[in-house]
Write a structure and sequence with these properties.
With 128 residues, the protein is an all-alpha fold. The protein has 4 helices and no strands.
């Protein structure tokens, strides 16, 4: 293989790795944000933040706008990435079904449903 072909291959691999790292970082950030958001109602959290930071009226308005914009961006990202996440979950299910016995698969599904119920989230897709 000549050096041009090798360089092209390395560039492709680097691009894929960067994409995957970005995707994983985005999912992790989304999960961290969700965990933080579950702590209290949106109004309570903001009031606590505003009080602790001693925000003036102008700052309160601007910070609320920033949080609102962020919320919209995250919702759009979630909606955009949802089909890919569901595909990955379906692939995971298919692979697990090939490894687990029927009884183990049923128990796994029950355990997964229980974990989702504890998190307070609806059953998202068919995977873990």
């Amino acid at each position: 293989m000549d050096s041009t072909s090798r360089n092209k291959g390395q560039i492709r691999i680097a691009a894929i790795v960067i994409f995957l790292l970005g995707f994983v970082a985005g999912i992790m950030a989304l999960n961290a944000y969700r965990a933080w958001a579950r702590g209290r109602g949106p109004g309570d959290r903001f009031e606590q933040l505003a009080t602790r930071l001693q925000l003036n009226a102008d700052q309160r308005t601007k910070v609320q706008q920033i949080f609102g914009d962020t919320r919209q961006q995250l919702q759009a990202l979630r909606k955009e990435s949802e089909p890919r996440v569901n595909d990955i979950r379906q692939q995971t299910d298919q692979r697990l079904q090939q490894v687990l016995t029927t009884d183990q698969w049923q128990r796994f599904q029950q355990m997964r449903d229980e974990m989702r119920a504890r998190r307070g989230g609806p059953g998202r897709g068919n995977g873990p």
